[in-house]
Amino acid sequence: MKVLILGGTGVISRCIVEQLLAAGHSPVLFNRGTRKELFREDVEWLIGDKNDADTFQALVRPHRFDVVIDMISFNAADAALTVQTFKDRAGQLIFCSSTAAYRRPFRSIPAREEAEALVDDPAFPYAYHKAEMERYLHTVIEGGEIPVTIIRPSLTFGIGGANMGVLRQNVNIVHRIEADKPLVVFGDGTAPWSFTFAPDTASAFAGAAGNERTYGQSYHATNEDLHIWEDLYLEIGKRIGREPQLVHISSQLLHEANPALFGHLYYEKQYSGLFDNAKIKRDIPSFRNGITLAEGLDMMLRWFGREGHPVDVEKDRLEDRLVETYYRFGDELKSLF
Cβ(116)–Cβ(106) under 8 Å? Predict the structure, then answer.
């Protein structure tokens, strides 16, 4: 199949490209063309910016695709541009949404697709706009314009990512453990979660491509390796042979201090992150979700070491200030009694 990936160089999408190549398909990447070094094999590229709608449509107009995988639509308008552009020149559209689009708290645990509702509160913009995108796509499905499949990843770690940790501090976590500097954990650290890694998530998209069972359907695609949030830091400590020091700060206080930085904690991650994958396993037998937390973190640590990631000094200082505030509040609290 000839498969166009809108994006193609992100954490999940680069794995999709690799899996499509391994399966003998012909992936074509549409993006700004700044990261061609990611793929050893000869991959066709269309260079452009989807935000420039006229140029984007003119660039793809001469082509037809069996499948288009859209990894860069974040709202209904983005998705509408994809639908209007490809409804007559593609056999299927696959959109990347997010489990963040589910309303919290869940009605079912592990969460099942048919049991959950989409966010309708704009307070957490990322989740709200993904939900609005899905509501639009359901009108497309109902109208029969073109076969549409929606995949909802949960929090996914992978090579190239910058989203690990409360502050999304990545290699700073290793730095702080090695330097005996405390790490901030939101809440009491016991919120249940299944951490997912990019090669597994990518198998959902690759397996949905050209798969008629997925037409008109929505799926989450997540790990089922049960953990709590503290395990992320404790397991990294095990991998590097040092026990981390953890301090716990309320997700509500963090959000009130900086909604932009900590909204994902307050609106999403303080709740259960457990998902039932029966539906996707039924319809996409090639879907994989077996990378354990230990295996995935080994992959990430090898990447950190291989590329020599520098410490984010600004985030390190912010975490120092949060830790200092935590201890100062504790001392003031004790003085009350």
Answer: yes
Give me the helix-helix angle, 53-60 and 76-86, nearest 10°.
30
Between CA 197 and CA 162, with CA 79 as vertex, the angle to 5 degrees is: 30
Rounded CA gap, 200 and 292, in Å?
Answer: 10
Q: Rounded CA gap, 130 and 150, in Å?
A: 11
Distance CA 255, CA 177 (A): 25
pLDDT digits (tens, 9 = 90+) for 119-143: 999 999 999 999 999 999 999 999 9
d(CA 114, CA 159): 32
Instruction: State the Cα–Cα distance between residues 231 and 270, nearest whole angstrom.
Output: 15
Q: Which residues contact 84 (CB under 8 A, 6 or more apart)?
A: none
Domains of the chain, residue spans: 2-326
- Pairing relation of β-strands 218-221 and 246-249? unpaired
Q: Classify domain 2-326 at the CATH topology level.
A: Rossmann fold (3.40.50)
Query: Is 105:272 a contact under the CB 8 Å cutoff?
Result: yes
Q: Are 113 and 59 in contact (CB under 8 A)?
A: no
Asked if 70 contacts 134 with a C-beta cutoff of 8 angstroms, the reply is no
pTM of the model as a whole: 0.95
The 10s digit of each residue's pLDDT in 73-116 is: 999 999 999 999 999 999 999 999 999 999 999 999 999 999 99
